[in-house]
């Protein structure tokens, strides 16, 4: 594909020596690290409230199991365990809150090296990515975690003459690790339409190729779910099914992108054809042989 003089000028104007690139990188890193640090401090200050917020799905599961949600109990078995759990929660929350700022800084660093049409193509995905991550996290919080915890609560047994009492007493660190793993896994999987759409735009993928690999995608979805989720069938199936649905969404999005690209290609061809006709019409009088 040929590059127009305007696009060449655009790249040359934005090109900078190595030292300027390093200075720019340093500035973007300072903004990103500073934003994360501030978000971390805020989350650590409210760590207990955030943890109680994350326990709400466990309370819902307790209600579904016919138990009193006021009697939900989590424990920690080491003196420092709950403190480091709060630190871990603050780091996770800080990263989530600071992600839009970090993504913006990454974009601002690489944007000068992109053509205008590439920047315009990239921006929608910059906004779509955090939205899809939040959708995945919401699915975990409002539906998946209560279902998983209800499944685990159902495995308890009351003490009788014939059997010993078995009660679920999760550790604070293990519960947080479970819900953070689920949020991260679902948030990551929900990026599938974004990644495939970007690859389709740059010509690395096509809707036809995605459709042809559907069977393999289903197998890979279950394999990835087995790796990312806790080792229980409910978690694995719960992640694999949304992944398969998102794969179908990715195929549909790829088709829309290809349709839009085809329209743009046809419009360019018509424009080029019109310009050629206009050039021939302008050159026609000068090409006439005098009588």
Automatic annotation (TrEMBL):
Its main location: membrane. Keywords: Cell membrane, Membrane, Protein transport, Translocation, Transmembrane, Transmembrane helix, Transport. It is a multi-pass membrane protein. GO terms for molecular function: proton motive force dependent protein transmembrane transporter activity. It is found in: Cell membrane; Membrane. Residues 267-282 have a biased composition (Basic and acidic residues). Residues 267-291 are annotated as: Disordered. It comes from the Bacteria. The chain crosses the membrane at residues 29-47, 89-110, 122-155, 175-195, 216-231, 237-257. GO terms for cellular component: TAT protein transport complex. One of its GO terms (biological process) is intracellular protein transmembrane transport. Coiled coil: none annotated. The Tat system comprises two distinct complexes: a TatABC complex, containing multiple copies of TatA, TatB and TatC subunits, and a separate TatA complex, containing only TatA subunits. Substrates initially bind to the TatABC complex, which probably triggers association of the separate TatA complex to form the active translocon. Belongs to the TatC family. NCBIfam families: tatC. Part of the twin-arginine translocation (Tat) system that transports large folded proteins containing a characteristic twin-arginine motif in their signal peptide across membranes. Together with TatB, TatC is part of a receptor directly interacting with Tat signal peptides. This is Sec-independent protein translocase protein TatC. It comes from Mesorhizobium metallidurans STM 2683. The gene is tatC.
């Amino acid at each position: 594909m040929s590059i127009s003089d305007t696009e060449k000028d655009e790249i040359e104007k934005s090109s900078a020596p190595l030292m300027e690139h390093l200075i720019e990188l340093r500035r973007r890193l300072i903004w990103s690290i500073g934003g994360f640090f501030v978000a971390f401090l805020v989350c650590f200050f409210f760590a207990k409230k955030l943890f109680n917020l994350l326990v709400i799905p466990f309370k819902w599961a307790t209600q579904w199991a016919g138990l009193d949600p006021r009697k939900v109990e989590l424990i920690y078995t080491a003196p420092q365990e709950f403190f480091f759990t709060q630190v871990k929660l603050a780091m996770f929350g800080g990263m989530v809150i600071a992600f839009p700022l970090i993504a913006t800084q990454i974009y601002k660093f690489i944007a000068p090296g992109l053509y205008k049409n590439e920047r315009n193509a990239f921006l929608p995905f910059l906004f779509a990515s955090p939205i899809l991550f939040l959708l995945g996290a919401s699915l975990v919080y409002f539906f998946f975690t209560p279902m998983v915890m209800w499944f685990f609560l159902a495995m308890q047994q009351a003490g009788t003459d014939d059997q010993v009492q078995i009660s679920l007493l999760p550790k604070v660190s293990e519960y947080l690790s479970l819900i953070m793993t689920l949020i991260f896994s679902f948030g990551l999987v929900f990026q599938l339409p974004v990644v495939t759409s970007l690859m389709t735009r740059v010509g690395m993928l096509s809707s036809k190729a995605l459709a042809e690999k559907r069977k393999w995608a289903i197998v890979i979805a279950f394999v990835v779910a087995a790796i990312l989720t806790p080792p229980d069938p409910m978690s694995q199936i719960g992640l694999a099914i949304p992944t398969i649905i998102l794969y179908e969404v990715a195929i549909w999005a790829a088709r829309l992108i290809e349709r839009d690209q085809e329209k743009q290609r046809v419009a360019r061809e018509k424009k080029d054809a019109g310009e050629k006709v206009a050039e021939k019409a302008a050159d026609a009088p000068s090409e006439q042989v005098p009588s």
